[in-house]
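Q: Given only this backbone (456 positions), what sequence would you predict?
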């Protein structure tokens, strides 16, 4: 795979995203923490004298941050809490934050294009599952030296290093802000004990349907959206010791484990009939969650982040749901789930990497971790924070145990969305027509993807 080709695609993506933003698809702003979104130029002259007086004539320290978190967005409770956390950093360190706000789905392309232009932000928020794309484009610097000078790696969840390490060189390029875990949620009225294997999913689903008229036993996101690969095909493939890509990101899903995963999904719909056919065409992941919350499905694959939605439902108010790891393919086998989260990265051309690292170190402290994880809906990344009393009982303890025992990062897709969508389409094609030759479908899909993105 040629880097030139990747850069061209990313630059095209960036330009398209920029045009979309200009048409109202998302507002991009820049500003310091003190001015809540005003531009640097608007505030610089007025603040120069005040800054020099306050700093004894020394130049103030200003950290530039590219993020989807917007200090002007006071309507979002989560963002408001996080901004207050950032303001606390300034209060404690004297380092101001200048924001470069970018819509969440445009961050990767903006990071690449600003870094290539030699004018990146000092610190950037990145999607950990898209790490390979950013590293391959040369947009991020490795953090290993700073990590080893500042930390004992054993003080962090293994998920941090799994998510932040690029398989191409085994170096760490990002640090998770918080982390998400996924598993199987089940209605305790319908299912008394969590299934531990694929066979037990089937038997528990069939039993629930026989005892409760009008419901389905099991649900998942199995449509053509790339999230199908994240939440269903990927974990079920890993459970069979399979993989979705090679180390360079090229497709490798034409294997027995991936075929078994897709066949199991198809059988749940077409043979065992415990899963509604709509799960093969759903376009909004929340639809499956809402069906479970409404009591229409006995078990679903979903993340720890579903907890607030479930707690607010009648099912949750009655305390009739629980969580367990993704069931193993066979008894005693691995129970991997896709673990990811928003992360911090430092652009390779950052002018103040030491300042960016100072923020990352501060953000990784226990109190900051607890506050951010609670607001964002994730789990803390340090063992110390995970051992806090709020994570030592109930669902939170199950989330932590699942994270530390079963977390699996996504295979290193360089063309992340394109690759997972190609796989998801192949899976849905077979599930909707189980008479087709599954291995032929996977082979054709794999070859088409590799020909498009990896042909010499």
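A: Predicted residues:
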């Amino acid at each position: 795979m040629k880097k030139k080709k990747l850069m061209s695609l990313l630059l095209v993506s960036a330009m398209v995203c920029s045009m979309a933003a200009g048409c109202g698809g998302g507002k991009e702003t820049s500003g310091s923490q003190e001015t809540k979104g005003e531009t640097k130029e608007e505030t610089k002259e007025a603040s120069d004298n005040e800054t020099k007086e306050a700093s004894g004539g020394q130049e103030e320290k200003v950290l530039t941050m590219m993020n989807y978190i917007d200090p002007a967005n006071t309507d979002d409770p989560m963002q408001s809490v996080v901004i207050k956390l950032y303001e606390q950093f300034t209060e404690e360190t004297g380092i101001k934050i200048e924001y470069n706000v970018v819509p969440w789905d445009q961050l990767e392309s903006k990071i690449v294009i600003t870094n290539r232009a030699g004018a990146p932000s000092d610190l950037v928020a990145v999607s950990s599952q898209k790490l390979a794309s950013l590293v391959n484009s040369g947009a991020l610097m490795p953090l290993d030296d700073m990590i080893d000078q500042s930390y004992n790696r054993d003080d962090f969840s293994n998920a941090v290093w799994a998510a932040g390490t690029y398989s191409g060189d085994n170096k760490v390029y990002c640090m998770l802000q918080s982390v998400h875990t996924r598993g199987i949620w089940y209605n305790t009225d319908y299912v008394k004990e969590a299934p531990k294997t694929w066979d037990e999913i089937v038997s528990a689903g069939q039993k629930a349907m026989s005892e409760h008229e009008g419901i389905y036993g099991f649900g998942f996101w199995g449509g053509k959206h790339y999230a199908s690969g994240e939440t269903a095909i990927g974990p079920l493939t890993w459970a069979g010791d399979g993989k979705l890509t090679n180390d360079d990101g090229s497709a490798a899903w034409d294997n027995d484990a991936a075929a078994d995963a897709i066949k199991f999904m198809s059988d749940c719909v077409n043979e065992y009939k415990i899963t509604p056919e709509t799960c093969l065409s759903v376009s909004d992941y929340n639809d499956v969650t809402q069906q479970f919350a409404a009591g229409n499905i006995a078990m679903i694959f979903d993340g720890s982040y579903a907890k607030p939605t479930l707690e607010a439902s009648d099912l949750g108010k009655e305390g009739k749901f629980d969580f367990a790891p993704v069931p193993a393919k066979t008894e005693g086998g691995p129970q991997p789930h896709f673990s990811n989260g928003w992360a911090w990265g430092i652009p390779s051309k950052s002018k103040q990497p030491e300042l960016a690292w100072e923020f990352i170190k501060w953000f990784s402290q226990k109190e900051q971790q607890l506050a951010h994880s609670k607001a964002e809906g994730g789990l803390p990344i340090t063992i110390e924070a995970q051992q806090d009393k709020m994570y030592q009982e109930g669902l939170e303890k199950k989330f932590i145990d699942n994270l530390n025992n079963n977390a699996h990062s996504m295979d290193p897709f360089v063309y992340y969305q394109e690759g997972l969508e190609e796989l998801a389409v192949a899976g849905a094609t077979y599930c909707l027509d189980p008479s087709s030759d599954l291995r032929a479908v996977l082979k054709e899909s794999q070859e088409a993807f590799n020909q498009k993105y990896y042909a010499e």
